[in-house]
Amino acid sequence: MNKKWKIYEVDEKKVEEISSKYNLNKLISTILANRNITTEEEIRLFLSPTRKDFHNPFLITDMEKSVERIIKAIENNEKVTIYGDYDVDGITSITVLKSFLKDRGLETSQYIPNRLNEGYGLNNNAIEKIKQQGCDLMITVDCGISAINEINYASSLGIETIITDHHEPGNEIPKAFAVIDNKRKDSKYPFRELAGVGVVFKLIQAIGIKLGLKEEEYLKYLDIVCVGTISDIVPLVDENRVIAKLGLMLIRQTRNIGLKSIIDTSGYTKIDSNSISFGIAPRINACGRMGKAEDALELFLSKNYNEVSELAKKLNDYNKLRQDTEKEIYENAIKQIEQNKLDKNNSIIVGGHNWHHGVIGIVSSKITEMYFKPSILLSFEEDGIGTGSGRSIPGFDLHEALTKCLDSVEKFGGHSMAVGLTVKKEKFEEIKKEFEQIATKSNVSEIIPVINIDAKIDFSAINKDMVESLKQLEPFGEGNKMPVFVFKNLKIDSIRALSEGKHLKLTLKEGNTVVNAIGFNIGNLADEYRIGDKIDVVGVLEVNSFNGVESLQINIKDIIKSI
């Protein structure tokens, strides 16, 4: 697939100014300039944030009354239920709030809806169960901002509710006792992009300040807050960067035996944003997708080493099951795409019988990434109802597209890049045809993926010191991607496909400089290039560790023949 390479226009004067003024090498200075991090305060906050960089939590609307209400609940030993989501953000949110309140002497209950039976957010059946347990105060975490009717129902049962959420509110705010969401239109808070667990952290910070606690009494949870923040793919800028930077330092010496156990089980030796995203997060999410989200919660809350060890193993088993299930559905979907030549279309919709609802969203993401087309996967049950997930590409609004398919779609929700939907079996061919027409009219075929490149680097200049210096820019993630570089006119010294043709392994040479390279999911290019070919490569510089030996490696994002 053709990709557009877009190299940042370097402001050499600005780069030189940053380099000399702040004693940073030219490469780091270039990347900071590219990301518009140029003032002294911006650079300090980016490279060396401290606990003093947290914003005042009382700037968040309804924070003051929420704090007062929770302190009252602590003083009166009220029955409090924490209602959270089943993903990493929700699980970490419950963990932090429940643990903090327990340290204040208040034991709380929690409710996590079942992903397959109840779906996301509040529901009336759950609220009834919570009421039967004698709940006085319900605190939602990572959900609730759109639960207008459910909050009204809770109120009618005599349950007061404090909502903590980070999703966009609709036109109407639920009539809860308090609503903490820094995306509220009336919010004066200087940062909008906190994860759900980030909002919970601000709540316990505010309670801590009000009670006159030492900072350590709420800062000690930053390891768990960090896991939820990075896993939820929020931009790692401003306050999220403070959370991630300080949280990662705390994770490396964490006292949470559950977190330590899941790190050990994941096999990652280096603790960074990458190991959280690909090692820790999938295991926690697998509980909600394939088993019980409560197992992940218990892992973080338990003080028993034997129990933690068993739970970590269970999470690993859930994740293996998730991987196997995902692989099976993915291969089935690819087979349908190839047999029906759907890759020639502007959109892809495939369906299967009893595909696991917990993973079809992941598979849809992979298909969209592979073909660079909007995709929808539908799982049909015995009753002929198909429940599905869709993912899109930049430039095509998936949610808006489905508003034009109301005759063939039972219901749907989501946003421009991701949706959930329900379709009747008899409408399957109709939705495929209708959706394809919309994608065609939207000129999806003309949308070309863009690779943003930070700088052109001389091949002979790369070394371990250069890669080591890039660590100053960590943690990487949404809003702060790993720097991408272009290397030109390199000779292929060796080339082969790995993992049954899935990945590409190269040795690249220029003069006396030889560096290995790996290209994930581009193994098909092994047939297009030969030893001796000259190529331009776009990729990420990294250190590969194998059998205790470290070596430089380029993680390839794209290749073209040199001109």
Structural features:
19 helices, inorganic pyrophosphatase (n-terminal core), 563 residues, alpha/beta, five-stranded parallel beta sheet, single chain, globular, five-stranded mixed beta sheet, OB fold (Dihydrolipoamide Acetyltransferase, E2P), Diaminopimelate Epimerase, Chain A, domain 1
Low-confidence stretches: none
Q: Helix/strand-derived class?
A: alpha/beta
Instruction: Report how far apart the termini are.
Output: 18 Å
User: How many strands in all?
Assistant: 18
CATH architecture of the domain at 57-222: Alpha-Beta Complex
CATH C-level name of the domain at 57-222: Alpha Beta
Strand order, main sheet: write it out: 3-2-4-5-6
Largest sheet: 5 strands, parallel
**Nearest-angstrom radius of gyration?**
25 Å
Query: Portion of residues in helices?
Result: 40-55%
**Structure annotation, total helices:** 19
The CATH topology of the domain at 57-222 is given as inorganic pyrophosphatase (n-terminal core)
Mean pLDDT: 94
Shape: globular
Percent of residues in β-strands: 15-25%
Structure in words:
The protein has a 5-stranded parallel sheet with strand order 3-2-4-5-6, sandwiched between helices. Helix 8 runs antiparallel to helix 10 (222-231) and helix 13 crosses helix 14. It is 41% helix and 21% strand. The protein is globular. With 563 residues, the protein is an alpha/beta fold. Strand 17 (534-546) and strand 18 form a beta hairpin. The chain has helices at residues 12-22, 26-34, 40-47, 63-76, 88-103, 124-132, 148-156, 196-211, 216-219, 222-231, 238-251, 257-266, 273-290, 293-301, 305-339, 360-371, 398-402, 428-441, 464-469, and strands at 4-7, 80-84, 109-111, 137-141, 160-164, 178-180, 348-353, 375-380, 385-391, 411-414, 418-424, 450-453, 455-456, 485-498, 503-510, 513-519, 534-546, 549-561. Among the domains are: 57-222, inorganic pyrophosphatase (n-terminal core); 340-446, Roll (Diaminopimelate Epimerase, Chain A, domain 1), CATH 3.10.310.30; 451-561, OB fold (Dihydrolipoamide Acetyltransferase, E2P). The mean pLDDT is 94.
